[in-house]
Amino acid sequence: MILPNYTDFKTGERLLLTLSGKKTNIKSNLEGRGMQIKGNNAASKSIRAGEATGIYSGASRGTRSPFWLPAASYYGLSAAGAGMVFVLMFTLLQDNGNEYAVFWACSISVAAISFAVLLREIILRGARERLAAARRRLDANMRGAVGINGGSAAKSGKFTLEKNDQLLQKIREKSDAAKVFGGLAEGHKEVFEMCEKYLAAVRRELPNVGVGSPRIAAFRRGTKLAATAHRFHLLKWAELEARSLTGKAREIEQIEEKIAVSQEALDVVGFALTHYPNEVKLLDSAAALREHLEGLQTADLIEQAEKAVIGGNKKRAAALYQNALKILSDDGNQTAEKLDAIKRITGEVEKLTTDEHDQDGF
Fold first, then answer.
1. Is 242 helix (H, G, I), strand (E, B) or coil?
2. Choice between 58 and 277, residue whose per-residue pLDDT is larger
3. Alpha-carbon torsion 191, 197, 200, 205, what sign?
4. Of 119, 123, 107, which is closest to residue 77 (Cα–Cα)?
């Protein structure tokens, strides 16, 4: 084995997710098999912001009502249950010699049906209505105003002060809702998308605003509010989404799937960097995610190369080692561990090349 301790290599062990100012350690599970990676490292070095923009664009979600069993089905089941209760109670009472077995069995069955009615019409219906009301309130906050999600103010007429105030109020409400449910990445995503639409609407409307119009000051205040909310919620979304994906990757055993999910996490941070390219936390997280991804790819290439050597395909093994060297060499962050890995892999390549030349000589 060229790198017996490669899973302890810092590219695999200290996956940094610093968007929240903390570090999350992700241990690289390199026991998966398969996936041949070509020598082109452009995908792992790039953020692929264009793809991320398409992947993480907004999408509306339908609202489902809480499950409710139809009355006919519910009472049919209740009647069947009451019949079973009657048979059971009648059998038990009759076996004990109770002369009023029929009366008591009927009474208990009627009580069972009464309880079923009470359960459905009062307890369950009340709980269902409260759940539906809570869901409607949440949806109202999380979907935002129709004026923003359904179309811009420019399309519906003049962008008046009243419309501006309404849209800003919706942004505030939606932002507050996302903060209450702080751990839901989707809520933060909807807020920053809403802010983007507001800012775009303001940019379109500004050329139509006359000099000295009170809308200028209102738009400035709104732009400041929306820009602040956009930054906060975009960074929060990127943190939560990237953390979720890296956690998912940690649980995956197949190396090709692990690499794919790790690339998704890198795309998330890359998308955020298209908006805030100088954000230090984003840059640190992108670097750590990229380093982690490169560690997975390199380890997989080394494993494949070792199998090729065992199988007698030294030419293929040398090519795989060269691909691994390219990934490690292209990274500007050359740590002691990487330099040691490069040295050992280079030695293996030279050894394979020498053996091949010796065989050609014979």
1. helix
2. 277
3. negative
4. 119
